[in-house]
Structures are given as C-alpha cells and as structure tokens.
Write a structure and sequence with these properties.
545 residues, alpha/beta, seven-stranded mixed β-sheet, 30% helix, globular, binds ligand NA7
Length: 545
C-alpha cells in the first residue's frame, strides 16, 4: 500500500495569500505543505507576464506589513512596482521567512474530498500525487486561470488561425515577441490597457478590439529614491494602523475634500479636477470628494471631466467618440495607466468597436468582424476571468456526503460563503482571497486580516479540541445576504463587469465580492470573533484570546 503523506494543513498556491498562510502555520508549529502549479512563487504575478504588467497599488502598501524586519529589508525601485519586481519581492519574502522548503512547485491541484470518517481532506494533484490534511486552505485567488481555462470570447474557427494567440494570464514572454508584428488585443480592462500601451511601442500595428470603453485614471510612476524609501521604512510603526484605517487600505489616497462634489461650483470642481489630472496620482482622483462613490450626480461630474479629457487627447473625433464610457466612474474596476488614450494618435494603432461590428469568426489570417477581416500575426486575449466560479468549478471540491461545492452553488443559484473564508458542509475548508473578499480594496490588507483570522480560528478550535470548523447554514446565509444587499446598493451593480459576473455571457449576475469598504469589512470580521457562527462553537467555554 502506498503511504499517503499527511499534514496538519495543505495550502494551494504560493502567491501573496498562500505565502502568508504558509508562514503563519509553520511559525505556529503546524506541519504545512504548500502546492504551487507554477515553477516559482508569485501567484498572479507569476502567471501574468504579459508586456507592461505592473501593479497599480503603491509599492509602500503592496507589501506585507506583518513583519518589521521583512518590510525594512526590502527596497522598492518605483512607486508602482512592475511584475518582475513583485516576483523578486515574493522570492525575497519566502527566503526571509524561511518557508521555501514548505513549497512544492510544478504541482497543480486536481480535486479535493472530505473524508467524514477520519475528518481529513484528501487532495489530489494532476501528476497523481495524493496527500491528506486536516485543514485545506486554497489560496488560489478569484482571478485565476490556472485551476480553470482562461476566459476567452468564443470565436468561431479560432483553430484555423495560422498565427499565435495567447491569453495574458498564461503569457509566455519566451514565445511571443511583438516587435514588428500585427497584433490584435481583445479586451480593454487593466490588463488590456497595459498591454496595448506596450504593444503600441513596438508592434507594426495594434488593433484594439473593444467591447466597453473605460475610464483610465492618469498616473506618473516616479522612481523611489533612497530618502523616500527610508521615510517609508521609518514610518513602519504606524503603517498597519494607517492601512487598516483607510477605506481601501491605501492611505496615500486620502479624501481630499471632505464634502460633496456638488458643494463646489462647476468652475471650482473643474479647476480641482484639472489639478488632480495634472498631478496624475492614480486612484487619488476618485477620492477628490467624499461622495464620488456614493452619489451618482457627484460621480457624473468626474465622469464628464474624464470624458472631456479623452476628447481632448484623442485627435480623431470619431475614435474619441468610440472611447467614451457612459457608466459611473469606478463602477467597473478603475484603470490606472499612463498614455493609454495617446496611443490612438499613433498611426500604428486602430480601434474596433465590437458593439457595432462584432466578431464573425477567425480565419487563417486573422479575425473577421461584420465590417472587415483584420489581418494579424498575434492575437492577445486580455479578456479577463470567470471570477469566483471558474477556479472552484475546475477544482472539484467535495464536502460532506460528496457534495460538490460548485454544484451546490449552481443548484442554489447563488454563491454562498461565511466571510468568504468557510462553507457549511465543508469542514476545515478555509479558502483565502477568493469569492466574497472585498472589492475595490488593496488586496494585501484583507489578505493579512483574513490570514490572521484563519490562523487564529484554527488555533483556537485546536486548543479546545474541536475537530471540525464549519459555519452554520444560518451564518452562511446571513453573511451572503449581507454581501448581496451591499452589492446591490453599490455602484458595482450598475454596469457589467467581473465584480458581478456580467463580464461573461450566460453567467448568472451576482456580486462576487464584498462591496462595503475595508472599514465595514473589518467591522464584520470583528463581530465574528465570538465564533458563534460555527456549528461546534457552543462547546467553547473559554474567553477568546
Ligand atoms: P477585465 O477587467 O475583466 O477586462 C477584460 C476585458 O475583456 C474587458 O474589456 C472586457 O470587456 C473584455 N471582454 C471580456 N469578454 C469579452 C468578449 N466576449 N468579447 C469582447 N471583449 C470581451 O480583466 P483584466 O485582466 O483586464 O483585469 C482583471 C483585474 O486584474 C483587474 O480588475 C485588476 O484587479 C487587475 P467588457 O468591459 O466586459 O465589456
């Protein structure tokens, strides 16, 4: 009989969340093994190696803040880090935390089953490996195209295309060189916009296939000098407090005018928006006034300003017109980039409005729309993700009585979680960083809050000899209803996007993340600390420490 290796905990994925969980558990004395499908740590930043990939959260806050030594031992080169630099950072973190040995690379999860008799998870991998663990902690993220197929528009006859096509989340820089090529980019989200800017620099021609126009917030990306870096390090003592006290976990973007945009005259607003546009400080524009994300009329003042900038920047009025968004600013994930609209003034960039001229099919030479055939050497799918459901569907996670998580979600016509971190009928299954995590918040904040929450939960139940951590059905329903109600009230429900499943044809529309801000989220977490939401919690008699 082959021996099946058993651990206290198995973590899936070695991105920010997986690394943090591995660190907490191994430091806490648990045996923990982490399985990563890639050949390196990095998670999202390992897979998304497309040209121009860069983070739009300032590096000061796109760092772990749980360890002073870790924080102060790293120097970022610029305000917004590039993909390669984040990979270097995460490699540094893994070495510094001494957990590299816990991570098993090139190993993708295939399925996981809960065995009710021995109360262990059995996790299967695509290479045939099988392990057992008491706690099963997927840290695979919501925007994941590794445990599922990347989302691509269904284009008839794609197999006939003689050129190269790749999805940005499976990009392999070694195989694709855009220089001098005719490149088609499908999608104009954060990824598409970054890719288009880079492609426009070296491709012979870039054809942008746009379904929905986007607002793009301007940004400069200054290098960080040693003085600035020292200041960041010196401010470490207040860092956590500042991050936790900010609605998006990014304290460098304060609300600048703590009143409604409508309280200023149009002239005052215009001057203020002009000044902020010139300063080009990324997300800062959506914190110009305190009600831009709350009041449609206020939001429309910023929307109109940003539309006017597109018209001012793009010389060809017809192209400018096609690039104008009509929905509320930041109702879709806001995009931050430098020089996007300017690319449309280059002779080698053209725009196709897929709403007017949709795809007909792919041919040997390129992509055919109802208007014409676009000849291409490379097709780049920057078409996003089947967020939430995609990675779960293909992970085949079976709880009590063999119930499949995604089937349960499909049959119930709803995705249900308790705090995004546990599920009724799935004991000791503690995913981090996926469905029902906060939207519009710097992901590092909730990752650390929930990582610690999961660790404390395990530790606490362990100390009290309670073998199964499982939320009640009622707790799951209450949390899910809360997520849905807030989602419905928020701007995120007003336009199709991955926030609500509307980015994918036929996908049921339901909010996939927590639309309250980071402060509201923390309040909910705080409330959960009596652990009353768990089936076995009545046995707890000790005070929570
Ligand atoms: P996004 O933001 O979901 O963007 C995907 C883009 O692809 C977006 O422009 C979509 O248009 C477009 N898309 C998706 N499906 C189709 C079809 N069927 N036809 C044409 N165009 C399509 O994903 P990203 O990778 O850019 O960004 C993901 C996150 O990474 C981002 O939120 C940041 O957190 C970083 P649509 O707007 O849906 O009409």
């Amino acid at each position: 009989m082959t021996h099946v290796q058993e651990y206290d905990a198995v973590v899936i994925g070695a991105g920010f969340a997986g690394i943090y969980m591995t660190h907490l558990l191994s430091e806490g004395g648990y045996s923990v093994r982490t399985y990563e499908a890639g050949e390196s740590v990095g998670g999202t930043w390992y897979w998304n190696r497309y040209p121009g990939a860069r983070c739009d959260t300032p590096s000061e806050f796109y760092s772990y803040t749980f360890s002073e030594e870790l924080y102060k031992g790293w120097t970022w080169s610029s305000f917004y880090p590039k993909q390669e630099e984040i990979m270097d950072y995460l490699n540094y973190a893994v070495n510094k935390l001494n957990i590299r040995e816990n991570i098993h690379f090139n190993t993708a999860m295939k399925s996981a089953d809960y065995n009710e008799e021995n109360k262990r998870w059995e996790i299967h991998f695509t290479d045939g490996l099988k392990v057992q663990a008491k706690y099963f902690i997927p840290a695979i993220g919501g925007l994941n195209a590794i445990h599922t197929e990347p989302h691509r528009p269904k284009i008839k006859g794609l197999e006939n295309f003689k050129g190269v096509y790749q999805h940005t989340s499976r990009w392999s820089p070694e195989e694709v060189n855009l220089k001098g090529k005719r490149v088609g980019v499908i999608g104009t989200g954060s990824t598409g916009v970054q890719t288009i800017i880079e492609a426009a620099k070296e491709a012979e021609h870039v054809t942008v296939f746009q379904r929905t126009p986007q607002y793009v917030l301007p940004v400069k990306n200054p290098k960080l000098n040693s003085e600035q870096m020292k200041e960041m390090h010196d401010n470490f003592h207040s860092l956590d407090r500042r991050v936790l006290a900010h609605p998006t976990g990014m304290p460098s973007f304060p609300v600048l005018r703590n009143y409604s945009a409508l309280e200023n005259t149009p002239k005052e607003r215009q001057q203020f928006y002009e000044q902020l546009y010139e300063e080009a400080n990324g997300f800062q524009m959506i914190f110009a006034y305190n009600d831009l994300m709350l009041n449609e009329e206020s939001n429309e003042t910023l929307a109109e300003f940003l539309r006017s900038k597109i018209k001012e920047t793009v010389k060809d009025p017809e192209t400018a017109n096609e690039l104008l968004p009509t929905y509320l600013v930041a109702a879709k994930r806001p995009i931050v980039a430098k020089g996007y609209f300017e690319t449309f003034n280059q002779n080698n960039v053209s725009l196709v409005n897929l709403r007017k001229t949709p795809f007909v099919d792919a041919t040997e030479k390129g992509l055919r729309t109802t208007e014409t055939e676009h000849e291409l050497d490379i097709i780049i799918f920057a078409s996003g993700f089947d967020v939430g459901m995609g990675p779960i569907r293909d992970s085949n996670i079976r709880g009590r009585g063999g119930v499949l998580l995604h089937k349960k979600w499909e049959e119930g016509a709803n995705i249900k979680t308790y705090l995004g971190a546990c599920h009724n009928e799935f004991p000791n299954f503690l995913p981090i960083g996926g469905t029902h995590y906060p939207l519009g918040v710097n992901v590092i904040g909730p990752t650390q809050v929930m990582g610690k929450w999961i660790y404390d939960l395990i530790n606490h139940f362990d100390k009290h000899g309670i073998e199964e951590i499982e939320p009640t059905l009622e707790a799951e329903e209450t949390w899910t209803n809360h997520v849905n109600e807030i989602g419905e009230m928020s701007f995120y429900s007003t336009v199709d996007s991955w926030f609500n499943g509307g980015n994918i044809e036929g996908k049921p529309r339901r909010i996939l993340g927590y639309a309250g801000d980071f402060l509201m989220y923390q309040e909910q977490i705080e409330k959960s600390l009596d652990y009353k939401a768990f089936i076995h919690s009545p046995k707890l008699t000790h005070a929570i420490n």
